[in-house]
Amino acid sequence: xxxxxxxxxxxxxxxxxxxxxxxxxxxxxxxxxxxxxxxxxxxxxxxxxxxxxxxxxxxxxxxxxxxxxxxxxxxxxxxxxxxxxxxxxxxxxxxxxxxxxxxxxxxxxxxxxxxxxxxxxxxxxxxxxxxxxxxxxxxxxxxxxxxxxxxxxxxxxxxxxxxxxxxxxxxxxxxxxxxxxxxxxxxxxxxxxxxxxxxxxx
Length: 202
Hints:
alpha+beta; Ubiquitin-like (UB roll); DNA polymerase, domain 1; five-stranded mixed beta sheet; 6 helices; about 30% helix
């Protein structure tokens, strides 16, 4: 039998279009098989049950997906929605909470990484009728407009009280640079913080 000319595909070869269609179907099938689906029911990669964490002075027992961030745990499991989800990339500060007295971005850390830690959210800082001095100062100085960033701003500001920070407004702005306000209420925020730092609203 005579060989086919070089560079010519055999007659039984599939076309490029058919090959791509087959490859796409195979990829979709393998993706579905490895997506954690079991008869249409998502399989949750749960962590250890009953992991303790103290939130606003109350011990909670975490039983969550290992991928759950602290932010999502607070909002979706404990329904503490004062902590806001802004950028979800640690760039805006709207999700700032205290962990063992230190401020962190809750969107950047996993809930299960905080076994035994003490977490404070804006709900645990003060309450109507007994506002924290920083909350009262924000109200007095109109340190918010739309209010979306306010919880994170206040949590950062209260943590700043126990951190090394120079006395000037420029120092405060630098220490608060991780918290963004799209409304631009920065001068009011700084005024509120400075009032508390100088002993006001105590």
